[in-house]
Amino acid sequence: MTDTAPARDEVSTVTVTVNGTAIEAAKGELVIDAAERNGVYIPRFCYHHRMKPVGMCRMCLVEIDTGRGPALQPSCMIECTDGMSVETESPVSKKAQDGVLEFLLVNHPLDCPVCDKGGECPLQDQTMSYGPGESRFIEEKRHLEKPIPISQTVFLDRERCILCDRCTRFAKDVAGDPFIHFQDRGNDSQVNTFPDHPFASYFSGNTVQICPVGALTAKPFRFKARPWDLDQVESTCTSCSVGCRVVIDSSRDEVLRYSGVDSDPVNWSWLCDKGRFDFEYVNDDGRLTEPLLRTDAGQDLAPAKWSYALKTAATAIKGGLDRSGPAGVGIIGGARLANEDAYAWAKLAKGVIGTDNVDAQLDDGLPAAFVLGLPRATIDEVCAPGGTVVVYAPDIKEELPVLFLRLRHAAVEDGVKIIELAATDTGLTPLADSSLRVRPGEAADVVAALFGSGTAPEGVDPTAFFHARTLLAGGARVTAVIGRPSLAESADVAVAAAHRLLELVPSVTFLPALRRANVFGALDMGLAPGILPGRVTLDEGRAHVASGWSLATKELPTETGLDTRGILEAAANGKLDTLVLLGADPLADFPDRDLAERALTGVRTLIAVDLFLNESNRKADIVLPAAGYATTEGTTTNLEGRVTTLGQKITAPGTARADWIIAADLAGHLGGDLGVESVAQLQDEISRVAPSHAGLAAALADPANRDGVVVPVPAGPPQPPEHAVEGNPADPSHRGAAEGAPAEPVLLADGEVPGERLEHELGPDPAPATVTLPAPPSVAAPVRDAYAHRLVVTRKLYDHGTLVQHSPAIAALAAPSSPLRLNPADLDRLGIASGDRVRVTSERGSLAIDVVADSGVPKNVAALVLDQAGGAAGQLLTAGSLVTDIRVETQS
Amino acid sequence: MTITDAPKIVTGRLAAHDDAHTIARYEATDGYKGLRAALQRAPQSITDEVKAASLLGRGGAGFPAGVKWGFCPPGVFPRYLVVNGDESEPGTYKDRILMESDPHQLIEGILIACYAIGCSQAFLYCRGEMALAHERLGEALNEAYAAGYVGKNILGTDYSIDIVLHWGAGAYIVGEETALIESLEGNRGMPRLKPPFFPAAKGVYLQPTVVNNVETLANLPWLMQHGAEAFHALGAENSRGTRMFAVSGHVKKPGVYEVEFGVTTFRDLLYAPIYSGGIRGDRALKAFIPGGASAPLFYEEHLDLPLEAGVVGKAGSMLGSGAIVVMDETTDMVKATRNLVRFFARESCGKCTPCREGTTWLERILDRIIDGHGRPEDIDLLLDVCDNISPGLLWPPKQTTICPLGQSATPSIVGTIKRFPEEYERYVNAPFSTTVAINGAAYLSPPVAAATGGSAE
Known about the structure:
heterodimer; A: alpha/beta; Alpha-Beta Plaits; Rossmann fold; 6-stranded mixed beta barrel; B: Rossmann fold; Ubiquitin-like (UB roll); 3 domains; 10 strands; 41% helix; globular
C-alpha cells in the first residue's frame, strides 16, 4: 500500500513540507498518509487506508499550500505534489478541527460510560486531543431507537453514528454485500438496512472493527468488558487456512474478542465472521477438561486421571504393535494442531511408533505429495495487478472468505482476470471474467481445450469459453488456485487439471485451496503418508530425519503408509488395531459416511485427542483433552506456506494439555523419548531437522518478519549471531546424538549457530531435496447414463461442525436444511416442483430429501451441501470413486 | 432608468403566445430554424460562434458556455450533454417558465449544443416538483421525435441524437452538477469530489460530460439565427445578451423578466412599471436578495448597481441564479433569516459534517431565539458556527465542505446580524419565558413574538 510505495519507486518521490519539516513522499501518496508516515498524525474518521477516500467527515482538514496560498483541504483526498506545504497545527487548521469535532458531538450521545467503544473510541480520543473542551450545543439531541439488530451478529445504534460512510463503503466496495445504506437526508441521515434485508454478509464483523464510534457493536462482545481491562496478544486465525493475523483480547482468563490485524501480504485487517466470532468455542462450557475412558465396551465414557489415561492409551498402542506391527496403528487428523504439535505427533508416529499410516486430511483435500510438490504462489502473486487467475477450487467465498476479499479487490480494483472452472455457480462467479461450467470429472479436458484450437467442450458456454481462451492467449502472467471443488469428485480430477495446466503454462504457480486450519503445516510437518517433516518423502528424507531424531534409519517406517481412506478401509476390514483421531471427526467430515461408520466399529481401540466430544470421538475408548487455540504458543502455516506465530492468551480448560505434550507423554509411556520440553525447543528442532524449514526460527524472530515467513525460507545473507540464537539453544541430548551424522547440518562445535551459516562454512546444503510433483493420475470420467444426475457436494461457511456449533453467535447461521439443488429445467423434466420430497439413490446409498430449483446448477447436475442440518450428503458418496452419479425419483 | 428595448431572446415567444409550447406554434415562429442553420455548418464553427458571442452560463456560476464545451478531452467518446433543469433555489423560477412554456426552444438548443460538442445522447434533468414542465417537455419531445428533429438521422442528415427526459426526486443539492450526475446514474444525490470528477473529464458514467443550464441552451436557437454579432451587441462588457430574472417577495408585480444583461439596474427591475412595479403598498425597501438564497443581502444603497455579475460580486454579493427576493420595511429579519437557513438545513445532503450538523444547529438556535429562549451569547454562537462552516466569513466565501451548500446558509445570518443587530437583541434580551421546552415541543406564548409581530415571508 501507500506506505511502501516510496521504496518501490524512488524516481517519483516528491518533497512536501509538513509543519515546516521537509519530508519525502511518493507522487500520488495522500497527504494524510505521508504525514502519518513521518510522525504527524492528522485526525480522521471516514478515512481508512484500505478503502477509497470519500472526504466526508472533514476531520482531516488541514491548510495546504500548493503555491496559490494556504487553503483548508481534506488531507485524505489530496495527493502530495512537489513543493506542497502542509500546516496541520496552524490556527486555521486547529479551528477547523475544533469546529468539526463540535459538529460531530452535536448529536452524538454522551453515553460513553455504557458504550462498549468507550476507552478505544476514535471519537473519544480525538475529542480529547483535538476537540473543544465543551459543547455549546444546548438543544435536545437527535433520538432514535437504541440499538437495532441489523444482522444476527451486529447491532446498530444510530444515535451514536457519525455517518462516516466506513461501514457502508466496506459493505459495498470491499465485501460486495451492499446491504447497509445511507437513508434519508441531511440531519435525518441514518445508516440502516432495508426492511427484510438484513446485513447478511460473511464479513459484517469488519464494520464493527472499523466503526470509529460505538454505533456498530458485535453481539458476542456487547457489555462483556471495558477496553482498558482487555489484555492482548497477536496471533493468527485458524478457522481456515488463509491465516489472517488477529489480535486476541481477553479479560479474566476468557477470550472475548478477535480483531483483524493489518497484515499486508494476507488479510489487510479484514476477517470473516466465522473467524471473528468463533472465539466463543474457546470458552465454551462443553470443552473437554479431563481425560475420559471407557473401561468396558457398552459403558459410558468416564473421567480419568491423565496418568491412567495415557498409560491405557500406551498399553493399547503397544498391544496393537505386538499383534499387528506398526502398520496396525493409524492416525487421522492434525490440521487443528499448531506446527510444533504436528511435528511432535509426526515424530511420535514415525519415529516412536513406527507407523506411516498418518493423514491430516480426511480424503476431502488433495494428495499431500501433490500439494507439497506444486510450484507455490503467494496471495500477493495471485492478486498482483495485470495477472490472470485460473480457479478450480471449492467456493472460495464459503471456504476461504478473506482470500475471496483479496481476489475481489484484485478483480474489481486491479484488473486481475479470473477464469473460473466450476461445476455450479459459486460466490466467485460474479467476479470472474469468464466462468466456465465444467461437468464433474472433466476439468483436465476443459483446461486442455482452453489452450487448444477446437470448439468449446460439450456443456461449456462457448462465449465464456472463447473469452477465457483469449485471456489466456493474451500473454499475461498466469497463476492458479487449485483445490477440491466437490467432495463427490475424486481429488484426481483437480490433480490432473493442475498437471495439464502446468504442461501448457510451465511458469504457472499455484495457491492450493485446502480449507482446514493448519492443514498445510500438518503436511509440512509430515502428518501425511510417505512424507517426513520438511516436505521430504519418506525415502529421500529417511537418513536426514533419522539422524535428526537420533534414530537408526531402519527405525523409521520402511514403506509408505495408508491415507485416511486406506486407514478407514483397513479399520473397517479389521486390519487396523488402533486408530487415533487427532482432532478429527470422520463421521461428519469424511465424504463416505458408511465407510467411516464401519471403520470406527471395526477398530479394536479408538483413541481421540480433541477439544470437544463429537459424533466420532463419542465412540472412542480413550479421549484426551487438548488445550487448543489461544491456550498454547506455537506457529501455524497458511495456504501460501507462510508461517506465523500463534499467541497464548489464556490457560487451557481443566487439565487439558497441549497436543505436543500429549505426544511427548505418550512417547514416554511407549518407552520412547521425543526429547522436547518446550515449544521454543520444538521450533529450534524443526529448523534443524525439517529441510524446508531451515533457518525458520531465526527468521521468525526477526521483527521485520511480523507478517510471517513463507517457507522454504529464502537463502539470504548469513544471519547475524544475535538473530540466529534467538530462542532456546539446541537440546544438549540432541547435540550429542547427532555427532555421528556428518550430513546433519545443524551443529557447530559450540552448538550455538544453526543451519544457515553452516551452509557457507561446510559447503553445499546436505539436506535432501523436497518433494517433487508426482506423476499425474489418469482420469477418465465414466459416461453418465441419461437418467442420472452428476452430484456436486460442497461446503458452506457456517455448518454443523463442532467449533461453529459451540460458538453461539454464529451457530444459528448454519442453514436450517440442505435440500438437493437442481436446475429448474431438470425439475420440469422430472415433473416435480421446488419443495417436493424426492428419493435420491447412489451406488452407495439412498435417502429422501427436499428438492429446490437453482438456476446456478447446470442441467444434469445435482448439488448438495455437506455437514448441514439433516445433511446426508455423506450417505451418497463412495470413497475413491472419480465422480458420483445419482438417480432422482419422485417418492411413491 | 436604463430600460432598453433589447429583443426578448428567450421569452419573446412565450410572452406573445399562449400556445408557445406546441410544435405548431413553435414552427410558425421561426422554430427549428437555428437547428437547420447549425446543421449546415461545421460543429467547431458553432462552438467558435458561441465563444464569440460571449454567452455565459445562466445557472449561477456564469462560466462561458463555448469555453466549457471545449473542455471535453478530444477524441474521447461517447460524451454526454446534461441539461440542468433542477432549478430549486428559493425564489428561482426562470427555467421553469422556459420548460413549461417553450419546451421546443430548449430542445432545439440541446440539439445545437449536441451537434457542436459531438455527442449523440443528451439527458434532460427536470426538477421533481415541476410536474407541468415534465409533462410539457415529454409532449414536446414526442412531437420533436415524430417530426424528425430528434432521433435517428435528424432532418435527413447522418447525425443522430437521443434526448432522455429524467425526472428528479426533489433535492436542491442535485442542482449542483456532480450531484446531478450521481442522481442521474441512480445514486443518492451527493456531490462528487473535484478533482477528479470534473464533469468535462469524468462525468456521467465517467465519460466526458457537458452540463448546461436550461436558459443557456435556450439562447442557442436565436444565436444561430441572428449570429454572434447581434448577440454580442446586447448587454455590457463581460455580460452579453439578455438575462432572465425572477423577482419575488414584496413587490407589486412579481414575475420573470428578461432584461438586457449588465445594463438594467436593480432599481429598474424593482420599480419600473413594466417590470416589478415597486414595493407593495409603496412601503420602504428593507433588503433584497440579489441572486438566490445563498447570496448576501443587498440594501437600499445597492439599488443603482447594474445587473452584472462582476459589479455585484465586487459589491459583496452575487447574481447567482437570477432570483431576486424583495423584503419591505415590515419584515422581521430574524424570522426571514430563519426561513433561509431552514431551507439549507432541510436540503443538506448529509455528506459533510459541517453542513449536515451545522446548518441544522443554526436553524435550531434561530428557532429558539424566535421562540423566546434566546440568550445574548447566542449571537456570537451563531457567528462562530457560521465561521466553522465558512472559515473567515469572507466573500467570496471559503468552505469546510465539498460543495457550497453549507456555506450558503451563512451569509444571511452574518449579514442580518451586522445590519440589524437590534432585531436580534430585541429577541435575546426579552424576559425569559417561564415555560419549559420538552423535546423541542411547543412553548407557551413566548413574550417577544407578540411584541415584534413582524412577518417572516
